[in-house]
Amino acid sequence: MVRLGFIIGFIALLGALLSGLAAYRVHDQELALDRIALARAIDVHASLVQDRSTERELLARVASGLFRAPSVLKPNMLEPLRSAIYAFKTDFVVAGWIARLQPSELAAAQTAIATAGFPKPQIRDYSDKPIDPASLTHPIDVLMDLEPRSDETKALPGRSYDDDPVRSAMLTRARVEKRSVASDPVPLLRGNGPIGVIVAAPVIPEGATEPVGFITFSYELASLMLTNDDLSLFSVALKDPRKEGSELIANDQGVVSTRMTSPDGPAPSATRTISFGGRDWQLGYYAKTNSARRAEQTAIIVAAIGFAITAMVCGLFGYVAYNNLRLSREIQVRIGFERRLTAVIDELNHRVKNILAVIQSIVTRTLRHGSDIDVARELLIGRIHAMSNVVSLLSESQWQGVKLKGLFEARAIPHADRIAVSGPDIAVSARAAQSLSLLFFELASHSDEGLSLVGKHPHITANWTVTGEEPETVFHFRWEEFNTSEATRRPDSDFGLILLDRVAPEALGGTAKRYFTDVSYVYELTAPMETVVDMTERDRTEKLSQPVKAVR
To answer: Is omega for the bond preceding 187 within 30 degrees of 0, making it cis?
Structure first.
C-alpha cells in the first residue's frame, strides 16, 4: 500500500512537473508566435503605407514636371494632364492648379475661370468674400482649375488660400523649398468634409527661380493610412501634428476622428515613422488582443489538464513535441518566406529600374531641345501608354511572357484596326515584349499621316514566322505599309530611328533593316528565337511565383 502510494505520489509529482513544464513552454511559444505575427504585420503595413505615400508624392512631382504653363491665366490648365493623372489610378479626392497671381492679374484670372465654365468666377478669399485688387500689395495663390469637376467642386475655383492657415503654410513652404510638401490633416472640400492631407508640388518654368503656381492632390487620410479591417491584428492611429496629446483614428466605415491621449492611457504596441511630403509622420499600432493574457490562459488550461489526468503524461509529452514541431515549421516557413520575399523584391527592383531607365530614355529623347511640344507630348503619352500596356500584360502573366498578338491591341498602338496581323501564336519574354511594344508603337504612330498617290490611307501588314530546327530556330518579323512612298510617309523621329535600327535589334540579339519598295515601306527584324522567348528568364520568374511550402 505504501509502495502504491509512493508510486502514485511519484506519478503525481512527475505529472505536476511535466504539466508545469508543458504550461511554461506553451506560454512562451504562444507569446513568441503572437509577437512575431504582430511585428511582421506591423512592418508590412508600415511598408505599404510608405509605398502608397511615395507613389502619391511621386504623382505630384511627375505632374508638376510634365506641366507646361505658357500663361498661368489660360483656361482649363489641367486639360493636358487629365489623361496622365488618371493613368496612375490613385485615389485622390481633388487635383487642382493653384496660380500665383499678381494683383493686376486678378481681372484676367476671373475671365479665365468664367471661360472654363465654373459658376463662381469671382476672385475671393477662403471664406468666400470678394477680394478687392486695390487692397493687395503682394501676389496671392488662387485656385484656377481642378479635377474632377462635380456639383460639389465646381464652386471652388476662384478662392484664394492666403488666409487659410493650413493651406497657406503648405504653399509657402513649397514655394520656399521648391519641392513637394504635404499639409497638416485638414477637412477636404468643406468644413465638415472628410479629414485628409494635401500635397503640393511647385511648377517652376524653365529658367525661372520662383514658381508660377502649384499642382495639388488631396487624399483622404483613411485610405492613405490603410486603416483597420475586422481581420487585422491591430488598429492604427496617426499622431496629430496639430495638437499635442491627440491622435487621429478611423472607425470601421473609414471615418477619421480625433482622440485625446494621456500618459496614463494605453500605449501603442509599436510605432513606425513614414515620410510624406517633406515631413515625418508617426503611426501608432494598438494590438486588438492581449497576447500575454491569452498565453497565460492557454498555459493554465494545459496545466489543469496535466494535473487532472496524470496518466496522460505521454500525451503531454506528445503535445509539447507537437508544439515544438509546429514552431519549428512556422520558423522554417517564415525563413523561406523571407528569402522568397527578398528574391521577389530584388527581381521587382531590377524590373522597375529597367522600366524607369526606358522611360527616362523615352522622355529625354522625346522632349529634346527644339522639338514641337504638342507632337512631343502626344508621342510621349503614347510611348508611356505602350509601356503601361505591356507591363499590365506581363503582370497578368506574372512576368512569364505575353502573347505576341496581344501587343497589337488598340489600347497599345494607334490605328490598330488598319493592321492585318498574322503569325504563329508565340509567347515572347518580358524583355522582348517591352522592346517589341515600343517598336510596334513607333511603326504605327509614324504611319498615320502616310497617304498614297490616290489619297487613301496605307494598308499595313504585320507578320512573323519561325524557321529552322531547335535549338537554331530564327524569328523573322516583317512590317509593310502599302500605298506609301518616301515622299508621303511621315519621317521617323530621332528616338524612333534609334529604336528601329539599334535598340530593338540589340535587345533581341538580331538585325534589322528598313527600306522603300515601289509601293510600300518595309521594316524587317531577324533575331534568334532563344532571345525572343528567353526560357531562362521565364523559368526564373515562374520559380519566384511559386507558393512557399512548409519544410517537412
So the answer is: no
Cβ-in-10-Å burial (0-12, 13-18, 19+) of 524 comes to: middle
pLDDT in tens, the chain (552 residues): 556 566 667 667 777 777 777 777 777 877 788 888 888 888 988 898 898 888 888 888 888 877 765 566 777 777 777 776 776 666 888 998 999 988 888 888 899 889 888 999 899 998 889 988 888 888 999 998 898 888 888 889 999 998 888 999 999 999 999 999 999 998 888 888 888 999 999 988 887 888 888 999 999 888 888 776 667 778 888 887 777 788 888 877 778 888 888 878 788 888 889 898 888 888 888 887 777 777 777 778 777 777 777 666 555 545 555 566 677 778 887 887 777 667 656 666 666 666 666 676 666 666 664 466 776 677 777 777 777 777 776 677 666 678 888 888 756 677 777 888 999 988 888 778 888 888 888 888 877 554 444 445 668 899 999 998 887 899 999 999 888 887 777 777 777 788 788 888 888 889 999 999 988 889 999 999 888 886 666 555 655 555 555 544
Query: Other C-beta atoms within 10 Å of 248: how many?
Result: 23
Which residues lie across from 199 on neighbouring strands? 182, 217
Q: Are strands 520-528 and 474-482 parallel, antiparallel or unpaired?
A: antiparallel
Judge whether 499 and 379 are in contact, CB under 8 Å: no
Indicate yes or no: pTM above 0.85: no
Asked if residue 478 lies in contact with residue 488, where contact means CB atoms within 8 angstroms, the answer is: no
Q: How far is CA 475 from CA 433, 465, 484, 512, 528, in A?
A: 14, 6, 26, 12, 6
